[in-house]
Recover the amino acids of this structure.
């Protein structure tokens, strides 16, 4: 039973951990320079300009048309086998994180982890890099593993929301029959047994309009030096709707289409998780708090990691070490 004091303490720890994480420079550099020679973006300009901007009116010109095209796609990934995927894992990544992607493929992101009983589909999300060599390397990696999707927006920290929306769009378009979707990052450890068998439960009826993760109730930071700075003209309110930390959240697959469609009429914000929270509020979907989602780092211990769903800030080396330890000690009791 959490008291007010312990809640406050937890909040302080979370804030510091997040701040340290950002300061640690573990995030990819966001300084992109140079010009890109990419396919011109096709805009969905409506034939008539409708001044009536009721957001439920689908004929209104989209505020945020997401007029991007897939440069690398896996349109048949979902349909190659008989049963629909139980879980689609969307992992936000950057071009240079080759090691992180490989570590995930070889550990918790392995699509054959539960065999044919519980189908898992893993996809890495990328935009277009300003360095053509990196785009080429990713294209080659994609031809080997067939687990990367790329749209033609510029890949940058400020465009993370576009990356998430690309993932939502992919699920809604190419795999609406999936049961659940997880969106996470490339430096997250996921306890798949816990996630699949204790939280989502393949034997139960799939939920609808379900959304869970580490729920944050906060407001915009107006300090321009902050990584989470939110200009007043972009978001005037003093509070955000409840949102799940972008380090890892889970939702029923129907929500992908709902969020994607809502996003077309919702002004884009660069804070990906806040933006998804805004879409959820419009949809009347309330995110559930789940204590298994840790959006800060947590020292490894077998028994502690058995209880979690996600842990943040795990390097590719640690991911292998943790995975090997946990799989070799499945018989041990805690
Ligand atoms: C806008 O459209 C809605 C539904 O189409 C309608 O009910 C409303 O009266 C319209 N408002 C204006 C100002 O035209
Ligand atoms: C985000 O992507 C769009 C489309 O490619 C691009 O015009 C814009 O400059 C990008 N924003 C940033 C901050 O990189």
């Amino acid at each position: 039973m959490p008291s007010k004091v312990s809640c406050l303490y937890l909040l302080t720890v979370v804030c510091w951990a997040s701040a340290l994480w950002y300061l640690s420079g573990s995030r990819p550099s966001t300084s992109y320079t140079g010009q890109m020679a990419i396919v011109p973006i096709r805009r969905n300009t409506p034939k008539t300009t409708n001044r009536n901007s009721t957001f439920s009116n689908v004929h209104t010109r989209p505020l945020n048309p997401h007029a991007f095209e897939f440069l690398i796609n896996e349109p048949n990934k979902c349909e190659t086998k008989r049963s629909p995927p139980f879980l689609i894992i969307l992992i936000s990544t950057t071009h240079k994180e080759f090691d992180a992607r490989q570590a995930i493929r070889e550990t918790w992101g392995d699509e054959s982890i539960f065999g044919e009983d519980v189908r898992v589909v893993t996809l890495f999300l990328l935009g277009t890099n300003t360095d053509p060599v990196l785009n080429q390397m990713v294209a080659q990696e994609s031809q080997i593993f067939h687990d990367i999707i790329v749209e033609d927006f510029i890949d940058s920290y400020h465009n993370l929301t576009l990356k998430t929306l690309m993932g939502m769009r992919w699920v809604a378009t190419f795999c609406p029959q999936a049961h659940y979707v997880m969106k996470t990052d490339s430096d997250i450890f996921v306890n798949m047994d816990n996630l699949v068998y204790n939280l989502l439960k393949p034997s139960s009826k799939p939920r609808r309009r379900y959304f869970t993760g580490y729920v944050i109730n906060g407001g915009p930071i107006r300090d321009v030096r902050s990584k989470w700075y939110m200009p007043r003209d972009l978001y005037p309110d003093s509070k955000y709707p409840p949102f799940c930390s972008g380090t890892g959240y889970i939702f029923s697959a129907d929500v992908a289409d709902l969020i994607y469609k809502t996003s077309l009429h919702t002004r884009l914000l660069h804070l990906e998780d806040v933006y998804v929270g805004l879409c959820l509020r419009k949809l009347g979907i309330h995110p559930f708090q789940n204590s298994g989602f840790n959006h800060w780092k947590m020292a490894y211990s077998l028994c502690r990691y058995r209880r979690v769903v996600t842990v943040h800030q795990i390097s590719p080396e640690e991911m292998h070490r943790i995975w090997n330890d946990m799989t070799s000690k499945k018989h041990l009791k805690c």
Notes: The first helix runs from residue 4 to 23.
